[in-house]
Amino acid sequence: MVGSVVNDSGVLLQVIGKVKPPAEEIEPAEIAGTRSAQLGRENGRKKEILLGRNLHSSSFGITEPEADEELTSDREAYMASVLAKYRRNLVERTKHHLGYPYNLDFEYGALSQLQPFSINNLGDPFIESNYGVHSRQFEVGVLDWFARLWELEKNEYWGYITSCGTEGNLDGILIGREIFPDGVLYASRESHYSVFKAARMYRMDCVKVETLISGEIDCSGFQVKLLENKERPAIVNVNIGTTVKGAVDDLDLVIKLLEESGFENRFYIHCDGALFGLMMPFVKRAPKVTDLLFRSLPTLFCSRCKKTNHISINV
Prior knowledge:
Belongs to the group II decarboxylase family. This protein is an alpha/beta fold. It has helices at about 70-95, 135-150, 165-180, 195-200, 220-230, 250-260, 290-295; strands spanning about 5, 10-15, 35-40, 45-50, 160, 185-190, 205-210, 235-240, 265-270, 300-305, 310-315.
């Protein structure tokens, strides 16, 4: 049996039935791909979905509070020691934190007074909610700041603050699929994994395009792939900074090839600006984000993360 369950706290469990535990401790990488569920058919063949396995041996057990106050105080003291140990671990790990361009200069002291409240910005930030405990005024203020940075007027965009860069990619590609339900998704092999995750979630045909040594999309190979699917609209993921090499795809050339290949008015471009989308306005001789937004695009979506929270702008 395969299934899943989720609660309002965002906890998702995948139900995979009883699994015989390994005979000895092994690394997860050693069993990658050893179990799968055959679900549905794809191109006339059974489609296999790889499933995970819970191999954690160092997780903490969660127990209900004790009725005995003495036992409860002992447990609280134990939890305080667990958290203190965990904090020391975070401090040590952060000293050697390399490879991810995150802003580690956090100072949330001024916001601690807001933690007792259940703040929820559910829904469209530009539409008043019937849930009164929200921070929409701050969310829209942040969006307006990015709009000014990218030289957009208030009536020229819509957006919201996402929970992560993956959500920005999922939402941006979903918009493309809604505009072109039969479109083919094109993305370079060095695009973020969430782009290909979106293709699986939305059951889109996805074409992976090879890259140059720099990590940017190989536009000659891209055109070949386009011509193989000329009868169907194109949904293209364009990177403004790839995850590993920081490569910036040539948007001008991508648009030129789309138009030359007969896709005029039949393409949608999603720009994943998670790495450099915020930096570009401050870099000399870098392409202006405004120039990227107002090419001959039916719609363009940018996701922002890393240096601030995650911003999604739909122009």
